[in-house]
Amino acid sequence: MKPKTLMILLSSCLLFTSFPLLTRAADELPTFKASDTAAIVAKSGQKITVRGTVSEVRKSRSGTNFINFENSEFYLVTFKSDLPAFEKGEPADLYRGKHLAITGVISIYKGKAQMKLNRPDMIKIINPDEPMPKPKSKTTSHKKTAPPVKKDKPRETDTKAKRKAPVDAKKYFK
User: Fold this and answer.
1) Is residue 162 part of a domain?
2) Cβ–Cβ < 8 Å for 40, 32
3) Quick one: CA dihedral 82, 126, 31, 60, positive or negative?
């Protein structure tokens, strides 16, 4: 097999095996209140859902939209380049005073947690009385445990480990 074909095959396998991790449903993600700043900051770089009530919205001169939440140092930012995705209006106008659930990746900017809102499907207007989803319990009852390994006397072939000849990398990578 040619080296390029091998690399493409390996890359494809890696992509398809990690795909389920990239497409987890929002209800399977950890959910936090916007006011739980420490927990949100601790999830920096991870995809989570944040719920809260919008307390303030503003737009910069450059067209960037900012959405802040009650009792929180967490905020949403939508850059001007992402605004065309919001066909019904700009986020600052659409979500003023609303109770929201936002799913995305947390980042830290100037010491504060933020989420970049670049698609309308990342955000959902919810009822403020709607309870927080309960964390899914991780039960291990469905997992099978391996039977204990029996220690027998070593056989003669086990005492001397058979070694394979080293692979010549030049043969596979040119």
Assistant:
1) no
2) yes
3) positive
- Dihedral angle over CA of 27, 39, 21, 5, nearest 10: 160
Number of domains in the chain: 1
| 52 closest CA partner among 28, 30, 76 | 76
- Kindly list the distances between the CA atom of residue 38 and the CA atoms of 24, 44, 88, 133, in Å, as whole numbers in the listed order: 24, 10, 33, 19
**3 state DSSP class of 172:** helix
* 74 close to 52: Cβ distance less than 8 angstroms: yes
Q: What is the pLDDT of residues 105-146, one digit of tens each?
A: 999 999 999 999 999 999 999 987 877 766 555 444 455 556
d(CA 62, CA 81): 10
